[in-house]
DNA sequence: GCTCAAAGCGGATAGTCCATCCGCTTGACG
DNA sequence: CGTCAAGCGGATGGACTATCCGCTTTGAGC
């Protein structure tokens, strides 16, 4: 992955495109690369060169958000202490953080929900995040805090499901609904 | 809603179109009305006349599935007896039935997940179904079997979320995963 | 500061897909 | 059988996608 540094103009355009893309994502608009080009005052080909598909653009937009989640997870992990309640609390907090992030940043949802193969650029990031979540999960599970019917691989799907469910509910505040649903779900995930 | 009966040829075409549409839905293909027309040996305009959008076609395809769920619910409801465990079991069984149906019939998912306003044709059916689920829910709730943080209006979103989560999970058997997730979720919904 | 190779640019345009319109056909009914 | 409205079909304009290629800009080397 040794990338030659971009030429000055190319870097400028890259940022402009990303900015426009971020704006579109935030307002929930569908991403059409020709429109992005016009809005960024850039040729169509320039957009397509940097981002061959809308998904590639969204992926790149989502990058920082994923990294933030990873850092969040890493900063809190090392304090070990596999006490049952603590390990559960740590897992729960990160799931809430993940749901909050997805509710806040619309670029995350499609990236998390997409199959691994569809997102070459973020595959490695997702891997790292999954590994962090997995560690938290394993600790909680080892401490006996988790229902044995739930596995590591279920965490991301379940988080996506929570966000999706909240977006189906015809409510103004999607984030609050998502938190509520996650709370209910976690009552089921927690072992009794 | 007094509809003039269709002319013989129109009815024939209508069925052909629906059949083709059902096939496409079953194989998970995206629905393009021009393709449907060709596959049904029918003019494009004929398809558009019956179904102005792909959603309208899916809606109609989903109709019988929704009706089956309604009947299922109605046939079991009247036996009243608001005993706590029984009312919970009835609610649970119908949620499982709903999830199973969605896993089996791909046309249901978009219809359930769509906002009321987007689906003029099925709005009334969805209403009826929601009313049935609502009754089951209210009975269970009145019997104290349900977590007070969950409301009637949450049932459909949560079911959609379960299906969505299962479809994110990279597994062969989506139906089984969905059932598993629903079981976990219901552990959280049930009052302890 | 000048030169020049190559990295990068942009927009014209060919390829697709979508949905409407309108002249023709067919079924219903007396 | 004749009438005529309901219904048919596909040609076609409009929108969107993505590529190609001739031109411009950059920056490394002198």
Question: Can you characterise this structure?
Answer:
Chains A, B: It comes from Paractinoplanes ferrugineus. Chains A, B: Residues 11-69 form the HTH tetR-type domain. Chains A, B: Keywords: DNA-binding, Transcription, Transcription regulation. Chains A, B: Residues 32-51 bind DNA. Chains A, B: One of its GO terms (molecular function) is DNA-binding transcription factor activity. 2 copies of one chain form a homodimer. The first copy, chain A, is mainly alpha-helical. Chain A folds into 2 domains: 1-52, Orthogonal Bundle (Arc Repressor Mutant, subunit A); 62-189, Tetracycline Repressor, domain 2. Chain A has 9 helices and no strands. In chain A, helix 1 (8-26) packs across helix 4 (54-76), helix 2 packs across helix 3 and helix 8 packs across helix 9. The radius of gyration of chain A is 19 Å and the shape is elongated. The model of chain A has no long low-confidence stretch (mean pLDDT 92). The A-B interface holds A 112-113, 115-116, 147, 149-150, 153-154, 156-158, 160-162, 164-166, 168-170, 177, 180-181, 183-189, 192 and B 112-113, 115-116, 147, 149-150, 153-154, 156-158, 160-166, 168-170, 177, 180-181, 183-189, 192. Chain A binds a DNA duplex (30 and 30 nucleotides) through helix 1, helix 2 and helix 3.
């Amino acid at each position: 992955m040794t990338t030659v540094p971009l030429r000055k103009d190319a870097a400028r355009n890259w940022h402009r495109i990303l900015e426009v893309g971020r704006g579109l994502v935030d307002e929930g608009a569908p991403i059409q690369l020709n429109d992005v080009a016009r809005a960024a005052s850039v040729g169509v080909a320039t957009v397509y060169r940097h981002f061959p598909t809308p998904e590639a653009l969204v992926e790149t937009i989502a990058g920082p958000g994923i990294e933030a989640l990873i850092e969040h997870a890493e900063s809190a992990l090392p304090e070990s202490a596999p006490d049952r309640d603590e390990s559960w609390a740590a897992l729960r907090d990160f799931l809430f953080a993940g749901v909050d992030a997805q509710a806040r940043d619309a670029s995350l949802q499609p990236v998390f929900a997409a199959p691994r193969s569809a997102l070459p650029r973020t595959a490695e990031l997702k891997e790292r995040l999954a590994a962090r979540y997995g560690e938290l999960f394993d600790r909680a599970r080892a401490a006996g805090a988790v229902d044995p019917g739930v596995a590591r691989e279920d965490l991301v799907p379940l988080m996506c499901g929570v966000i999706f469910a909240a977006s189906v509910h015809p409510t103004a505040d999607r984030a609050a609904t998502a938190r509520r649903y996650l709370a209910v779900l976690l009552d089921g995930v927690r072992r009794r």
